[in-house]
Write a structure and sequence with these properties.
64 residues, mainly alpha, 2 helices, elongated
Length: 64
């Protein structure tokens, strides 16, 4: 049981003294970057879905 307590103590020390936390400004810029990347990826997936849907609609209408 003491090993668990030691682990928690060492983890707390590492998180409070050894970790370099980002500043509020760095955090905001990272969040904006993630948002922009997610929107670009979503638009790419939407575009691919639309193109595949269009091709399949054209293909099935040409069979009739």
């Amino acid at each position: 049981m003491s090993s668990v307590a030691e682990y928690i103590k060492e983890s707390y020390i590492e998180l409070t003294e050894k970790v370099t936390w980002p500043t509020w400004r760095e955090l905001q810029s990272s969040a904006v970057l993630v948002l922009v990347a997610a929107l670009i990826i979503a638009l790419m997936i939407f575009g691919m879905d639309w193109i595949i849907g269009y091709v399949l609609k054209w293909f099935y209408s040409s069979l009739a």
